Amino acid sequence: MKRHSNGDSGDKCELFCNLSGKKMPLPHFWDHMVGSGHATLALRADWQRRLWQCHEELGFRHVRFHRVLCDDVGTVVEEQGKRLYSFFNLDQIFDFLLSIGIKPFVKLSFMPKALASGKTTVFHYNANVTPAAEYDDWDELIDKLAAHLVQRYGANSLRDWFFEVWNEPSMKSFWTGTQEEYFKLYRHTAKALKAVDNSLKVGGPVTAKNQWIEEFLDFCQKTSLLSISSAQAGLLHGVEQFVESQVSSPARPGTGFRSAITASLRDQSW
């Protein structure tokens, strides 16, 4: 038994360890991935130097970041009434990652303005957190993205990547839709990815404080569309309040925030 006192508060924690208990393996899946800000940061030379150092000294094999589909990456935009797709910036990012031996953990978010059903955003970079207005348009985006990645990097390479749908949809700050609407987004995304290559690893629900996990697994049992299950293990109450305060509308812009993430991967062979 070990007692720990938390400063002057008097709070104590008692830890018990049964050394005679049955031994079980403890896969260190968290050692293989690092979370790092936003997709556009990966275009910076200083960011690239630091990630190379993390790979060389710490052995990270995957990296995950926000905003792969946001407007500043330019994946899909509306110009003069025409919808334009461009994967140039994503190619530069993924080319670099692969060149240093790191594989992408692709978090598919947030909603491109051209496809969004509303104008609610979060943080200074105005990440749109509303569902798709038309899911045929979302399907087309994911289909074009997946087909492009397969053509550029090859299906065998992509089978070692991970695709994750959205970020913390259990928080209204990051998803204005319902749980059912998130499941719809997930279903459309997974089907579009697997229509290009059924072996691609796709998962979710990427929720805060391990929420929605049981409901999500029940949903996926019926659809057979799950390769990984992920969640952000914890979110401090003060941080959660801050995130909630950053939800923006045209009348209330956000101020910016940078968060560290932890993805929990289930039943994976690394």
Low-confidence stretches: 233-247, 249-270
Amino-to-carboxy terminus distance:
35 Å
Name the helix and strand elements from N-terminus to C-terminus, one letter apiece: EEEHEEEHEEEHHEHEHEHE
SS content category: alpha/beta
Which class in CATH terms?
Alpha Beta
Number of spatially distinct domains: 1
Strands ordered across the widest β-sheet: 3-4-7-10-11-12
Corresponding CATH architecture: Alpha-Beta Barrel
Name the CATH superfamily assignment: Glycosidases
Proportion of residues in β-strands: 15-25%
How would you sum up this structure in a few lines?
This protein has 270 residues and is an alpha/beta fold. It has helices at residues 45-58, 88-99, 135-153, 155-158, 179-196, 213-223, 237-245; strands at residues 2-5, 12-15, 33-38, 62-66, 76-79, 82-85, 103-108, 121-122, 127-128, 162-165, 202-208, 228-232, 247-248.
Question: Can you give a write-up of this model?
Answer:
This protein has helices at 45-58, 88-99, 135-153, 155-158, 179-196, 213-223, 237-245; strands spanning 2-5, 12-15, 33-38, 62-66, 76-79, 82-85, 103-108, 121-122, 127-128, 162-165, 202-208, 228-232, 247-248. It is α/β, with parallel strands linked by helices and 270 residues long. It has a single domain (30-248), classed as TIM Barrel. A six-stranded parallel beta sheet has the order 3-4-7-10-11-12. A three-stranded antiparallel beta sheet has the order 9-8-13. Strand 10, helix 5 (179-196) and strand 11 (202-208) form a beta-alpha-beta unit. Helix 3 (135-153) packs parallel to helix 5 (179-196). The chain is globular. The protein starts with a strand and ends in a 22-residue tail after the last strand. Residues 233-247 and 249-270 have low confidence and may be disordered.
